[in-house]
Each structure stands twice: as structure tokens, then as C-alpha cells.
Amino acid sequence: MIMSDENNERAVIRGLRGVAAATTQISFVDPLGALYYSGYNIDDLVDNATYEEVVYLLLNNKLPTQTELTNLQSKLFSEMRLPKQVVERIKSASPTCHPMEILRTEVSHLGEFDPDPDNTSDSANKQRAISIISKVPTIISFLHRTRTKQEAVAPVKGFSFAENFLYMFRGRPADQQEKNAMERYMILHADHGLNASTFAARVTAGTGSDLYSAVTSAVGTLKGSFHGGASERVMKMLYEINSLDEVEEYIQTMLDDKKKIMGFGHRVYKSEDPRSKHLREMAESLCHQKDTLSIYNKCKKIELTVHDKKGIFPNVDFYAALVMHALGVPRDFFTSFFACSRVSGWVAHTLEQYVDAILIRPTSKYIGEYGREFVPIEKRS
Ligand code: COA
After folding, report:
1. The domain containing residue 251 runs over which residues?
2. Which protein residue has the closest C-alpha to ligand 1 atom 32?
């Protein structure tokens, strides 16, 4: 009997901290506090590019020409419509289900209506990727319209992708400031190296499984509160703290209880998350416009207090929560808005993983017992 093997002597790298598990050209998360998509600094993209240009960049590793961009925009627009079975399923979904649970199911459901599932060529997968990127915001918008007993709203040709998403979700056109905020929010959330949900997508793709399966894995992973689910918990915290005077005690109690403050800390960045400064600015200006500055001031005080007490910074989810709130998005939809943007990174990484074509299969260190004697069921106590 083999009682142990040399593999079992390996050191465990808990949480794969610091392990490089793939090569990528899609994005680089610089621990010193910068983020690049295909070599372009996020600071330049957020000020100058559209979300559609970023989608093209992530899928093709180059910025589009005007013709390429127009082509992509029209493909994205034409792919927004959902199969009627998906529409029916959303209508009959349980009203108590979290939107991310419904999204997880419906992304998987979309796979049933793929017109050519056996065609796994690069071009078929790219077409599929665009279709998924387009349909995810429609699923979320339609779910919200159904839940609030409002008519579904069709996208408008000539609106940007981000603008159409907000329009289909809320049923009214966005003003200029809201349009800018939505565009920037989607660019900032589009990709982020080998984060947990992208890793999940790549693990699924590494087995040779299809794109819908990869995105379904990613949706389920993003949902967790240590990942995309954090923004909903940030909003909960903002409601629990009634005034600026309560901030200090609330944070101290959380830290004394060894609880994590949602929207703070990061596995890679040891200084400020480069997306935070943009989201903070957007939150401040939206709150100014909507006369809800008191909630922004609460956020600022929380940020200073957590930094003073723990030396950590806000991550993408902290001010994103406030941006979503100011745009009129209900709290339980925050994570799904994140998914509607990050889906472009998920599909880009999945296509990259198909090219690398390696099974991602780490090992584990066995710490259980060896050589236990089998006892028949009637003799077990
Ligand atoms: N609140 C309080 N303390 C935190 C913290 C937080 N949000 N994030 C990190 N820390 C502390 C840890 O307690 C630890 O302190 P210690 O050394 O005194 O024990 C230290 O900072 C290192 O944190 P660690 O938990 O090892 O970091 P990690 O890389 O394993 O975790 C996160 C990263 C993102 C999971 C973690 O910061 C977290 O849970 N944040 C809240 C959830 C969140 O906002 N998620 C969205 C991420 S984009």
C-alpha cells in the first residue's frame, strides 16, 4: 500500500497567492497601482475610449479602426435580442431569486440556442463571444423590467452600448452625465487579469468546454461577496451607518470582530486600486447633481477611517456601489452590472485559453488518514 508520495511533500500555496497560472496579453494588473488593457493604461482608456472600443481591444489585442468599430457596434446591436425561451424563463423565475442566480442559469440556457454548437473555429467562437456580451445586459434589463412590472424597452440604434443598457434597464434615456458615468463604469470593470471569476472561466475553457460553460462558471464565481458581490454589501454598510458620527465606532467594531470591511483591500494592489480614483470622482459628481452628497461624505469618512486604522485602500467595489446607487440601480442588481461589463474580459480570456489549450489542474496536499480498515455498514457505529 502506498502511504505517501513525494507530491504530498509539496508546499501548499494557499489561495494560489502570487502564483502565475497563465500567460496573457489581455490585461496587466500592476501591484504598484496601475491597470493596462493590452498595453493601454486604463487612465487613458477611461478618458478617451468607448466601451465598444475596449471590447474590440480585449478580443483582438488592438484598437479598432473606424470601420472595424462600426462593424462591431452593429453586430453588438443585432445580437441584443434574447431567444423567446430565455424570455419566458426569466418571466417565470422565482421573485426571491438573486439576479446573479438567474443570470447564471440564463447564460447556460443561451447555449441551448446556439445555431452551430459544433463549430468551434476561432471565428465561430468570436461571433459567440459577441453574442454573449450583447445578451447579458439584455437578460439583466429584462429581469428588472419584469420584476418591477414594467414594459420591456427595446434598444435604440445610435445609442452607445452602455447607454442602451441603462436605457433598457431603467426605461428612460440617460442624461449626459449618466451616459458618461455608465460608459466609464463599464470600461473600468471590463477586465482585471486573473481575478477569481476569470480564472474560473479559464479553468472551464482549459478542459475544452464551450464558451457558455466558461461564462456560467465565471458568473457563479463573481457572485461571492469577496469578489463582485462586495458592492452590494458596501451599500448595506452605508445604510447601517446612520450618520458621520457613527462611522468610527462601526468600523472599529468590525475590525475588533475580525470582520472584513466590504469594498476594501485587494489581493494584488498594495496601494490604491487605480479604478477607485475614477469611480470616486464619478460618485462625487453624480451625488452633487442628485443632491445626495451626504452619502458620498459618509463614504469619504469610511475611506479615511479604514485607512487610518488598517492601512488599506478602497477597491473597485467601494465607490462603484455609490455610482450604481446614484444611477438608480437597486442594490440587488449591483453585482449583475459588474457581470454585464466583465463578460467582455471573460470571453476574451476564454478565447485566449483555447489557444493555449492546457488543462488547468493543480494538485492538493492530502492531510487525511491513511490505511483505514473498511467496516461493513451493519457493523458501523
Ligand atoms: N477589511 C478588514 N481587513 C482587511 C480587509 C478588509 N476588507 N482586507 C484585507 N484586510 C486585512 C486582513 O485582515 C489582513 O490583516 P492582518 O495581516 O492584520 O491579518 C491583511 O489586510 C491582508 O489581507 P488578506 O485577507 O490576507 O488579503 P487577501 O488577499 O486574502 O484578500 C480580499 C483580499 C479582497 C479577499 C480582502 O481584502 C477582502 O475580503 N475584502 C473585502 C471584500 C471585497 O471588497 N472584495 C472585492 C475585491 S475587489
Report:
1. 230-326
2. 266
Closest residue by CA, ligand 1 atom 29: 267
pLDDT digits (tens, 9 = 90+) for 157-194: 999 999 999 999 999 999 999 999 999 999 999 999 99
Does 260 sit in the ligand 1 pocket, CB within 6 Å? yes
* Nearest residue (CA) to ligand 1, atom 22: 265
Task: State how far the Cα of 346 lies from the Cα of 200, in Å rounded to an integer.
Answer: 9
Domain-embedded: residue 364: no
Does 138 sit in the ligand 1 pocket, CB within 6 Å? Answer: no
| Catalytic residue flag (residue 317) | yes
For the beta sheet containing 34-37, the strands, ordered from the edge strand earlier in sequence to the opposite edge, are: 27-30, 34-37, 40-41
Specify whether 97 is located in the same domain as 162.
yes
Q: Is the Cβ atom of 228 under 6 angstroms away from ligand 1?
A: no
Sign of CA dihedral 56, 62, 63, 68: negative
CATH (domain of 136): 1.10.580.10
One domain for residues 150 and 32: yes
Question: Does some domain include residue 372?
Answer: no
- Using a 10 angstrom Cβ sphere, with 0-12 exposed, 13-18 middle and 19 or more buried, the burial of residue 34 is middle
Among 305, 326, 347, the domain-final residue is 326
Residue type, 217: S
Active-site residue, from 189, 273, 317, 325? 317
**What's the pLDDT tens digit per position in 136-162?**
999 999 999 999 999 999 999 999 999
Cα-to-centroid distance, 239 and ligand 1 (Å) = 22
Ligand 1 pocket residue status of 261, Cβ below 6 Å: yes
